TrEMBL record:
Protein's UniProt name: Tartrate-resistant acid phosphatase type 5
GO molecular function: acid phosphatase activity
Pfam family of the protein (one): Metallophos
Needed co-factor(s): Fe cation
Lineage: Eukaryota, Metazoa, Chordata, Craniata, Vertebrata
Keyword field: Hydrolase, Signal
Organism annotation: Solea senegalensis
Length: 270
């Protein structure tokens, strides 16, 4: 990651949940912040903001502790359960908005080991409040590039498959408000799925790797453009670059080998 950040450039990192296996952290003083974050990503090229959201394993612990750690770290940025980021693309006049969601608050938690689907939100009021906030932000957005990020996938070919709750609650909003892409983790592989002009990026290969494709046919026909989950590759990640009129996504192996590249256009308002 540090090599790619240096070579291809990186202004920030998005961390899409399950930040601390297996049961999150219990307090803001947990040694995990140092042992599995600060002392791991030490390269100069990674001393940049890390924007964080929560996954199901984080919700097994104390998510508020992860939010509070923002005050203790120079680069850990987790201001709230869900929040919006806005950037100007240098020398272009173009803008990028990223909406960071808590999909566990929206859909409920799930036990990976029992292969559960999300059980439905623990607090319906909180779920509906987040959804109303999201709709308002999407409706207002005039950004040239609009990304939405959460832990659970909308579409996925792998073990967890498409998340029914997100297909019902989030998918119609992505379509209606012309999102550029939806970014997620949860399934332990790299996937790129394109449907109705929106890119769906699954980047969950930072720890475990899973070659499972049991839900391939539960995704729209012809939508799956790329998949890798071979354990021999030691995982991988995705680099995104936004330029004047396009966004380039590069799917990379842990050692920096490029596996797949795709381009998404800026939003058009008609």
């Amino acid at each position: 990651m540090s090599k790619i950040a240096e070579q291809m450039g990186a202004d920030f990192v998005l961390s899409l949940g399950d930040n601390f296996y297996f049961r999150g952290v219990d307090s803001v003083d947990s040694p995990r912040f140092k042992d599995t974050f600060e002392y791991v990503y030490t390269a100069k090229s990674l001393r940049i903001p890390w924007y964080v959201l929560a996954g199901n394993h984080d919700h097994a612990g104390n998510v508020k502790a992860q939010i509070d750690y923002t005050q203790k770290s120079d680069r850990w940025k987790f201001p709230s359960y869900y929040y919006e980021l806005n950037f100007r693309i240098p020398n272009t006049g173009k803008t990028l908005t990223i909406i960071m969601l808590d999909t566990i608050m929206l859909c409920g938690n799930s036990d990976d080991f029992l292969d559960e689907k999300p059980r439905g939100p623990l607090h319906a009021v909180d779920a509906n409040r987040q959804l109303a906030w999201l709709q308002e932000r999407l409706a207002r957005s005039k950004a040239d590039f609009l990304l939405v990020a959460g832990h659970y996938p909308v579409w996925s070919v792998s073990e967890h498959g498409p998340t029914e709750c997100l297909l019902q609650r989030l998918h119609p909003l992505l379509l209606k408000y012309k999102a550029t892409a939806y970014l997620c983790g949860h399934d332990h592989n790299l996937q790129y799925i394109e449907e109705s002009g929106i890119g769906y990026v699954v980047s969950g290969a930072g720890n475990f790797l899973d070659p499972d494709i049991r839900h391939w046919n539960h995704n729209p026909k012809g939508s799956v453009k790329f998949f890798t989950g071979q354990a021999s590759t030691l995982g991988g990640f995705v680099h995104a670059e936004v330029t004047k009129n396009k966004m380039v996504l590069t799917f990379l192996q842990a050692k920096g080998t490029s596996l797949y590249r795709t381009v998404l256009s800026q939003r058009e308002f008609n």
